[in-house]
Amino acid sequence: MPFLFLSPSTQEFNPYITEGNEEYWMNLLADRMEPYLHASGVNTVRNDPAAGAAGAIRLSNQGDYDFHLALHSNASPEALAGQQRGVDFYYYPASTAGLRMANILVDNIKPIYPLPERVQARPTTAIGEVRRTKAPSVLAELGYHDNTDDANWLTGNLDEIAQALSLGVTEYFGLPFLIPGQLRDAVVRTDGDSLNLRALPSAEGPVLAQMPNGAPVRILAQYDAWYSVFMTGSTASQKAGTLRNSPPFQPSFPSRRVSMSPSAQPRSFPQTGQTRKASFASSTNPQLRHRQTIGRSLRYNRSVCIWL
Q1: What is the pTM of this model?
Q2: I need a labelling partner for 131 at 20 to 30 A (CA). Which of 30, 100, 102, 255 fits?
Q3: Residue 91: which residues within 8 A CB-CB, separation 6 or more?
Q4: What is the pLDDT of residues 76-114, one digit of tens each?
Q5: Please, are residues 245 and 5 in contact by the beta-carbon 8 Å criterion?
Q6: pLDDT at 229 over 90
Q7: Half-sphere exposure of 250 (CA within 13 A, CB side)
């Protein structure tokens, strides 16, 4: 089950020609991406908006992440202000993983950007979040925020862009892309045995943890006979916590041995504030991460999300 460090811009000093600023819009985009990523079994951790790019690099390098994705929008030099358009995905020249992700994201953004010939993957050694991260990385420049057409494209199509980027991430990790629905509370029901939580929606997926009979779970999405879920609880959290250096939520898929709690009310997936990260569960399981944002501080709690 993959872990993505998601790093939206911290550059609140970069105003859009329309309204808002780069930090504001890139964090809204990340908020839109996370439900798709979690439902599809990708665990995420966000940067701290108050720590800047250096802080994002430092936090990323403290964990054991499978990829680092930075979200930005571009601006032209003063002499060309407002005249340039295009979307660029920057990767480190020696990184085959970075090039692969960049090319996948290019292919997913081209169909929705008005000038597809201006969507490109570009090598660079000048950008810190590309050069200095331990994990392979890509920095996205999603249009020029000093160009009215680009700014309107980005701010007017946040969900479409979020889906395209999330689809690219799931393609990179070899996971199905799932649309999140309402959160549903459920309970594991077995003949007394524990239920395996796996990293992939497959009986061949690695077992990451086990859920005891009667354990509560929350279902995020369904893929064939598998559920993408997360599970809270000290036992599962402790087992899951050994899988990564940073505190994870674990996604996974459970099988049909999960019953809906009759008293549970459906809940919409949060887009801001408290964000939960998930994976898949059935007889299988990945990891999930829980992030709570209070002002500009981040607090991480352990939990488990699996394929059942």
Answers
A1: 0.77
A2: 30
A3: 98, 99, 101, 102, 121, 122, 123, 124, 130, 137, 138
A4: 999 999 999 999 999 999 999 999 999 999 999 999 999
A5: no
A6: no
A7: 40
Task: Kindly state the DSSP code that residue 79 receives in the 8-state scheme.
Answer: G
Q: How far apart are CA 260 and CA 274, in angstroms?
A: 24
Q: For 35-136, where are the E strands, in sequence order?
A: 43-46, 67-74, 87-91, 119-123
Calpha distance 35→30 (Å, rounded): 9
Total length of the chain:
308
Least confident of 18-27, 199-208, 217-226, 298-307: 298-307
Distances (CA, A) of 80 to 124, 126, 137, 152, 155: 22, 21, 29, 19, 22
Sheet with 137-144: strands ordered across: 43-46, 3-8, 67-74, 137-144, 87-91, 119-123
Could you tell me the two tokens for 72? 């930005």
> Which residues are CB-neighbours of 132 under 8 A, at least 6 positions away?
57, 61
Q: Residues 8, 294: contact at Cβ < 8 Å?
A: no
Of 34-38, 191-195, 219-223, 251-255, the range with the lowest mean pLDDT is 251-255
Bridge partners of 297, per DSSP, are 294
- At residue 307, the pLDDT reads 54
